[in-house]
Amino acid sequence: MERTSSIRRKATHKGEVMIAGEQLRLRLHDGKLIKDRRYHLRTYPNCFVAQELIDWLVSHKEAPDRATAVRLMQHLMDHDILHHVCDKMPLLKDAKLLYRFRKDDGTFSFNREVKIFMRGQRLYEHLIGDKKSILQLREEHGVAYQRSFPGGQLIDWLLQNGEAESRCRGLELCRAMQEHGIIQHVAKKYEFFDSRLLYQFCINFRRRHRLSELLRESEKDDKGAIVSTQEDSRADSAFVWHKSSPQEDSNAFQSVRLSKDLTQVTRGHRGSLNSAQLHSSGFPLLVQLSLPSVRCNPKSVLRRHFTCEELFAPGAPLIKKVLTVIGDALGWGFVVRGTAPCYVQAVDPESPSAAAGVKVRQFVWQVNGRCVLYLNYRTVTRLVMTGPRTVVLEVLELLE
Question: What predicted TM-score, i.e. pTM, was given to this entire model?
């Protein structure tokens, strides 16, 4: 039993490393550190200079010093996330050497372990986005577990959504996810059974994984493998049971300007507002946004209506931007409205979207590479909610 726990703990850590590596790769692309580079009359596409990366990690406080930054990147190399462009260097050196993420050159190994991990991540995102999600606060032997589910109910869900051909196949998938540290019995006592026993996702897919956690997590024991309401109260955890506090700031979220007919929405946290509250305030249900005492302006923030043709007219005062938004435990933190084109109605100033550069009045052109300019906000909402936690937005911003 101890050996099995150790194997699952290592599998869970590998999953966390994969998430952190992918989040870093997207941030480096956004920061233009990853690009085509020439060396000795040869062009190496989508690579970075190790010395520049170490500079970036230290300046962005992802590592306290250069030595630690090197150790962090070596950890990614050890997990086959990145490699030297010519595979001549098994170690990452703080020098002017070229390295590349394997996902950027097609050499990333999609073995069974990776495929099961990606399948588990996709199922988790689907379950979280489901209005009638089976992930709920439940009790087992007098202990409450946030976002837990009965084993039999998960298999029912897999069958209803075409994720499994039969109950036998569904059981095999769930046991494979448990074997690879994706799901686990809430009390870590039982294997996965098609029963009423409660299980949880072990990996927090929604939390931003700081690079400095990688080395610490490799040394953690299985006490930190699963987060419950009693075990983990970190604010950035997707499994934390949040409680409202009337003393919190009530002006954390507001649209670009306030008007006399502002409506006050019931207080909550970003990630907990229901659709009725959002629609009654005139906002579309993109991500279930909420904050302590959210102020919502039902009127459009646009000074006038724009058509798609106007946006692409010669000389239009617009610039295109590509923004990568890595959702945190509470969501992305922005609201869209409108139809052909959609635009950003409001942005939470403390959210990942604000950090990524999303602003009100930006027109949404593409979501994860798909053109959405001629779609309505409900369709754009669905694309974001059912897609990956990392959203790549291409927006058109008006020049003031």
Answer: 0.45
